[in-house]
Amino acid sequence: MPSHKVFVGGLPKTLSPDTVLGYFEQFGQVTKFVMPKVSSVDETSAISLGFAYISYASAQDANRVLARAHTLSGKRVG
To answer: Cα dist. 15→42, 52, 67 in Å?
Structure first.
């Protein structure tokens, strides 16, 4: 199955992966989601690096994301 990957940068570091994924799932079927974090002693205190990679099942889904501006927690991301 081909992957249609989108890079989303400028994410507020306070956003949880569940929040980001939940928002971007509205544009289509997400097949893979990666939101890297700074290493820490434990996973609960790790801090987001402020970006994510989202793979969609179809090019149409990915294009829906790319076709508009996005704002999460009051900050424009893209």
So the answer is: 17, 11, 23
| Strand-strand pairing, 70-72 and 75-77 | antiparallel
| Among the listed residues 77, 29, 37, the one whose alpha carbon sits nearest the alpha carbon of residue 56 | 29
| Average pLDDT score over residue span 35-63 | 86
The reported pTM is: 0.86
Cα–Cα distance between 57 and 40 in angstroms, integer?
32
Structure tokens, 51: 């970006």
In sequence order, what are the beta bridge partners of 7? 53
**3 state SS for 9-65:** ECCCCCCCHHHHHHHHHHHCCEEEEECCEECCCCHHHCEECCEEEEEECCHHHHHHH
